[in-house]
């Protein structure tokens, strides 16, 4: 009986042990599953951590890039402003170049006109040069140059182009456009160049030829060439130049011709006396 | 831009001086002058010219006759000729161009226009 009881107790204890062992096994498995879960969670967290770190780095990178973009935008603005300034300077230089070219052209014309006017002391040549200046540099097609006869106080045509000099009347000083220009010493310019008149006293421009305040003649321009529609700035400068330099050239050449003539006469007398 | 010889044929001393002064501003260009067509022909016979600027109305041999003669001669047929004249009508221009002028400039001329024309015709 006691042996049976012992056997029963042993069996019971073995069952209990088996139960405990099973529970232990189950618990161990449970622990392993839990461990697996935790390891998975750890991996997930590590990944999240890594991603968070990357995101922070990316954010920092974005901030850096934003800063660089702002700097580049600033640089771009500055460059654009510099380009605008350089372009404005270029336009200014181009305008100044055109202006200087124009001034060069004007100076060349004025230089040539002055040079030629004073290149001779021959009265006829001086008149010819004045005509050439009006034709070639101003573009006058019809014009006449009148000289003052101080004895009769009248203007007499000496040379011209496109007009019959012999048929131009003598113009008294103080009368009409030409006479008024001669008496006042002030230049006359027609208000419009469209109405070309054939009347000798209706010029497009009339310039007094003056030595200081003394008028020795007038220049009257009646018509411009077909291609010349209006007076340019340089034309007014040439008229001003002619007013002074043509007058002195005419006066000097007349004086020279007279002195030459007198010298020839005196030389003739001397030859007569010495031979 | 060297070795180009340009001949200016013009009876007016003023106009000739203006053209010569304008053209001499071009680097590497030699400018020769003649006061009429006959003098121009003598120069052309002895010089290797690249370009001719010629007035139309001149004593002796005028500009149009000069163009005709240069175009008739195989040695000078291809030299560009620029007429510089006071005659501004379309008929005058057409006549000159028909005879063989390359360009037609009316007076009064601007130095810049002369230089521009020469530069273009010489291919500079």
List keywords for this structure.
A: alpha+beta, Beta-Lactamase, about 65% helix, B: about 120 residues, alpha/beta, Rossmann fold, five-stranded parallel sheet
CATH domain fold name of chain B: Rossmann fold
Strand-residue proportion of chain B: 15-25%
The CATH superfamily label of chain B reads Response regulator
Distance N terminus to C terminus of chain A? 204 Å
Q: What order do the helices and strands of chain A follow? A: HHEEEHEEEH
Which blocks of ≥5 consecutive residues of chain A have pLDDT under 50? none
- Count of runs of 4 or more consecutive helical residues of chain B: 5
Radius of gyration of chain B: 13 Å
Strand order of the largest sheet of chain A: 3-2-1-6-5-4
Largest sheet of chain A: 6 strands, antiparallel
Percent of residues in helices of chain A comes to: 55-70%
- The oligomeric state is heterodimer
Structural class of chain B, by secondary structure, is: alpha/beta
- Give the total of domains of chain B: 1
| CATH fold field value of the largest domain in chain A | Beta-Lactamase
């Amino acid at each position: 009986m006691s042996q049976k009881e012992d056997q029963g107790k042993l069996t019971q204890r073995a069952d209990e042990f088996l139960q405990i062992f099973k529970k232990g096994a189950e618990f161990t498995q449970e622990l392993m599953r839990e461990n697996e879960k935790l390891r998975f969670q750890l991996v997930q967290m590590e990944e999240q951590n890594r991603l968070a770190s990357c995101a922070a780095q990316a954010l920092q990178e974005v901030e850096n890039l934003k800063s660089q973009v702002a700097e580049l935008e600033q640089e771009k603005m500055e460059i654009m402003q510099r380009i605008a300034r350089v372009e404005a300077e270029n336009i200014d230089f181009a305008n100044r170049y055109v202006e200087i070219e124009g001034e060069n052209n004007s100076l060349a014309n004025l230089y040539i006109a002055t040079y030629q006017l004073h290149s001779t002391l021959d009265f006829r040549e001086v008149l010819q040069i004045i005509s050439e200046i009006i034709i070639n540099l101003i573009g006058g097609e019809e014009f006449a140059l009148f000289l003052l006869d101080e004895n009769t106080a009248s203007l007499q045509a000496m040379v011209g182009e496109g007009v019959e000099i012999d048929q131009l009347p003598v113009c008294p000083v103080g009368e009409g456009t030409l006479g008024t220009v001669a008496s006042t010493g002030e230049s006359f310019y027609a208000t419009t160049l469209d109405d070309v008149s054939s009347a000798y006293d209706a010029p497009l421009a009339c310039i007094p030829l003056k030595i200081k305040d003394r008028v020795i003649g007038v220049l009257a321009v009646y018509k411009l060439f077909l291609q010349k529609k209006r007076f340019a700035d340089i034309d007014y400068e040439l008229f001003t130049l002619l007013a002074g330099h043509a007058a002195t050239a005419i006066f000097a050449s007349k004086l020279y011709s007279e002195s030459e003539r007198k010298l020839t006469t005196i030389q003739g007398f001397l030859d007569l006396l010495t031979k | 831009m060297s070795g180009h010889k340009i001949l200016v044929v013009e009876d007016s001393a003023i106009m000739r001086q203006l053209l010569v002064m304008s053209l001499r501003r071009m680097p590497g260009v030699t400018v020769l002058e003649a006061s009429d067509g006959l003098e121009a022909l003598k120069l052309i016979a002895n010089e290797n010219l690249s370009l001719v600027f010629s007035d139309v109305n001149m004593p002796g041999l005028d500009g149009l006759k000069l163009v005709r003669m240069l175009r008739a001669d195989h040695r000078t047929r291809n030299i560009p000729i620029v007429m510089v004249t006071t005659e501004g009508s379309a008929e005058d221009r057409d006549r000159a161009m028909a005879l063989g002028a390359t360009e037609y400039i009316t007076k009064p001329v601007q130095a810049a226009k002369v230089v521009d024309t020469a530069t273009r015709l010489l291919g500079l």
